[in-house]
Amino acid sequence: MTSDRPAPPSVAPAPAPPANGAVPAGTAALVPAAVVAVRPAPEPPDVPLWRNRPFLALWTAQAITQTAHNALWYALMVLVEQVSHSTTHLGVTILTVVLPSVLFGVVAGVFVDHWEKRTVLIVTNVLRAALMLGFLALTHVPHGDGSRGWLLALFALSFVFSTVTQFFAPAETALIPALVHPRRLLQANSGFHLTFLASQLAGLVLIGPLILKLFGMTVFFLLLAIGFAVSAALVWPLPRTHHERFSPLVETQRVVRRLRGDIHELWVFLRRDRGSAWSMAHLTLGSTLALLVAMLAPGYVTSVLDIAAEDVVFVLAPAGLGMIVAALSLQRVARWVSKEALIRFGLGVLGATLVLIGTVPVLWQLLPFTRAGSEPLRVIELALPLTQGALGIVIRLYPPEQSSLLLAVGALTLVAGLGFACVIVPAQTILQERAPADSRGRIFAVQLMLGSLASVIPLLGVGSLADLVGTPWVFVGLGLGLLGFLWFLLRRAARAGTLAGQVASNSPAP
Question: Which residues contact 407 (CB under 8 A, 6 or more apart)?
Answer without folding.
Answer: none
